Amino acid sequence: MDTRSLLNQIASERIIILDGAMGSMLQALHPGPVDGCNDMLNITKPGLITGIHEAYLEAGADIIETCSFNATSISLKDYDLENRAYEISRAAGAIAKKAADKFSTAQKPRFAAGSLGPTAKSASITSDIDNPLNRAVAWDGLEAAYYDNARGLIDGGVDLLFIETVFDSLNAKAALFAIRRIEQERGVSIPVMVSATLSEGGRLLTGQTLEGFCRAMLPANPWALSLNCSFGADSLKPHLARLSAASPCLVGAYPNAGLPDRQGNYSQTPAIMASHIESYLKEGLVNIIGGCCGSTPAHIAAIASLAKNYKPRVPASVNAFQAAIDSGDYEEAVELAREKAERGAKTLILNTDKSRDPGGTAKNFIFLSNCFPVLAELQLIIESENWETIEAALKCVQGCALVRYKNAKEDSAEYREKVRLIRDYGGRII
């Protein structure tokens, strides 16, 4: 069984436990000035990193993350270590994998996840307030940096990769591109979780919505989508509920242990953090749970103890709406469309070609959906190979529908005629 299949099997049976913070654990140990770059500790003090990994494994973590959050050449340049990105990443992967293997059993396998941080630079946000076209980093530079980072982690032996604390989806897409390049070169498949961090308004720093982040990541077929950092466990919940509703794949969360005070101490004790996270578990919002900044092995032990009592989230089927349409159950389809709209969806594709009565199903769905104002917020896209179905639907739409007519060839006389008719019906062809 490959790693992704094994992880999915475990996730179907129980909630998967992640480890907690690495950086704040290292800070608590007061490393000396020469250890200012945490990632370099994989080379200079591997025993220190091993000890933290093992503490989380003893606390019940199924997955531990490498100490490589800043191990891209972009981030390491701050320490004049950019030429050692691959070496550091490989060492981090090897340390985590060795620790995971030490605790792994047939009944409870453990996994090492390679951490790929966001870097401190954005491909989407200008680096110069006076020049909106300026960027501190571009796609090619990010992809090359993530390529060395991921290659080192994989060569070190990690089982999966976490692209985490994503504040710019364009950065994350460059990381995904780099990972896919490695997979193609080696003929392997590496499970990937992508985890976003949100601002106070519930959006990524770039202004992208959580639903937009989800849509941007799904073409890469991630193993899981997640939220981390951002807030304490209590404040993260409403945003997690949105992700859980929007994501067709597994969903994770690893919030901070509250917020830090002026001395850098985080506000939530293990018991308090676990009590907030229990509400995630009761409502079936997660498949994967852990901790971020300020969390310790004690926090993870408390969370793991609670998680044993709850069932994992059941991912929503992306095909549920289409299945209802195909079966001609337009009432169920309308209910599912309402749920999509209430979760923040902006478009709805209506394709009734597989239903018993395509034109009738389209008409009945549209008529019934007109009873619910929330559905007026969705941009309807009518998709069909049958002109009669499209025409039947257009005769029922009160707004401006977009039409995808699959049988007409562009530049043909038929296409031009259909464009005219769609326009006359108040729609627009795409």
UniProtKB/TrEMBL annotation:
Reactions catalysed according to its record: (6S)-5-methyl-5,6,7,8-tetrahydrofolate + L-homocysteine = (6S)-5,6,7,8-tetrahydrofolate + L-methionine
Signal peptide (residue range): none
Enzyme category, top tier: transferase
Domain Pterin-binding: residue ranges: 305-430
Biological pathway: Amino-acid biosynthesis; L-methionine biosynthesis via de novo pathway; L-methionine from L-homocysteine (MetH route): step 1/1
Residue intervals of the Hcy-binding domain: 4-307
Transmembrane intervals: none
GO cellular component: cytosol
Keyword list, A-Z: Amino-acid biosynthesis, Cobalamin, Cobalt, Metal-binding, Methionine biosynthesis, Methyltransferase, S-adenosyl-L-methionine, Transferase, Zinc
Listed GO MF terms: cobalamin binding; metal ion binding; methionine synthase activity
GO biological process: homocysteine metabolic process; methylation; tetrahydrofolate metabolic process
EC number(s) reported in the record: 2.1.1.13
Residues binding Zn(2+), per UniProt: C229, C292, C293
Iron as UniProt keyword: no
Essential cofactor(s): methylcob(III)alamin; Zn(2+)
Pfam short name (any one): S-methyl_trans
Domain of life: Bacteria
Gene3D superfamilies: Dihydropteroate synthase-like, Homocysteine-binding-like domain
Function: Catalyzes the transfer of a methyl group from methyl-cobalamin to homocysteine, yielding enzyme-bound cob(I)alamin and methionine. Subsequently, remethylates the cofactor using methyltetrahydrofolate.
Similarity comment text for this entry: Belongs to the vitamin-B12 dependent methionine synthase family.
Protein name: Methionine synthase
Species assigned in the record: Leadbettera azotonutricia (strain ATCC BAA-888 / DSM 13862 / ZAS-9) (Treponema azotonutricium)
